[in-house]
Amino acid sequence: MEAPKFKRIVLKLSGESLGGDTGVNIDPNVVRSIAHDIKAVRDVGVDVAVVVGAGNIWRGAIGSAQGMDRTTADYMGMLATVINALALQDALEKAGVQTRVQTAIEMRQIAEPYIRRRAVRHLEKGRVVIFASGTGNPYFSTDTTAALRAAEIEADVILMAKRGVDGVYDSDPKTNKEAVRFENLDYIDVLKRNLGVMDSTATSLCMDNRIPIIVFDFNRPENIVLAVRGEKIGTMVGGDF
After folding, report:
1. pLDDT recorded at residue 120
2. From the CB of residue 66, how many other CB atoms can be counted at a distance below 10 Å?
3. How far apart are alpha carbons 164 and 141 in whole angstroms?
4. Which burial class, exposed, middle or buried, applies to 35 when counting CB atoms under 10 A from its CB (0-12, 13-18, 19+)?
């Protein structure tokens, strides 16, 4: 692999990305493939932190829409992210990558509690750190977790791995064949046009801390590696390729 453009990254993985073609449950083959790509990045000296969602298992917003208490539904989603984090940790360690899972909700039997200084130290020692259970608070998405953790650990970029979408478009490319993909965007354009890169809270946090975001298609092999090298893939928000 060529010299990386970024020294420290936060990789945001949706829960659906772990579910393969169906986007449901956990596909071990897909998780192993993700681990392989992360290892390739880690092997060239890039510090890698990962934030995982839980859409393959549970979405708090859906539970709330069906009458469940929103806070309870969101906490269930946070717990589901831990399941995904442990699956990814297992695949990474089988690939020979030292990995730590840190959770915003303490569960010491299976993971470390989130401590910023400890997370940074793990990264400095070459370990991959997986941040699970969101921010530990209801009403916040894992997108916001990615933005918050990126600011806390002083990451150079957030890589937003999307399932089957190769960037940010002016309309839904699945329903509009004339949709135009952006190569570069400002944060304020994402907010004003409601382009759905991340939720507004996460986008604002990235804007305030000048953290660029690269949105790319996770389904294409080695896109994580290409993004770290600074190749023009997908869409960059708040920066230039």
Report:
1. 98
2. 8
3. 21
4. buried
Residues of the chain below pLDDT 50: none
Q: Are strands 99-103 and 112-113 parallel, antiparallel or unpaired?
A: parallel
- CB neighbours of residue 2 within 10 Å: 11
Put simply, whether the predicted model's pTM sits higher than 0.90 gets the answer: yes
Domains of the chain are 8-237 (3.40.1160.10)
Q: How far apart are CA 117 and CA 204, in angstroms?
A: 24
DSSP calls for 151-205: HHHT-SEEEEEESS--SEESS-TTT-TT--EESEE-HHHHHHHT--SS-HHHHHH
Place of tokens 């960037």: 167
- Ramachandran bin of 23, using left for φ above 0, alpha for ψ from -120 to 50, beta for the remaining angles: left
Q: CA 214, 218, 222 angle in degrees (round to 5)?
A: 90
Dist CA 30 CA 26 (whole Å): 8
Total residue count of the chain as it appears in this document: 241
Which of 4, 47, 54 has its CA nearest to residue 25?
54
Amino acid at 102: Q
Are 163 and 16 a contacting pair, CB within 8 Å? yes
What does R_g of the chain's alpha carbons equal in angstroms?
17
* Long-range contacts of the stretch 220-223 (C-beta < 8 A, 24+): 220/166, 221/33, 221/37, 222/37, 222/40, 223/37, 223/161
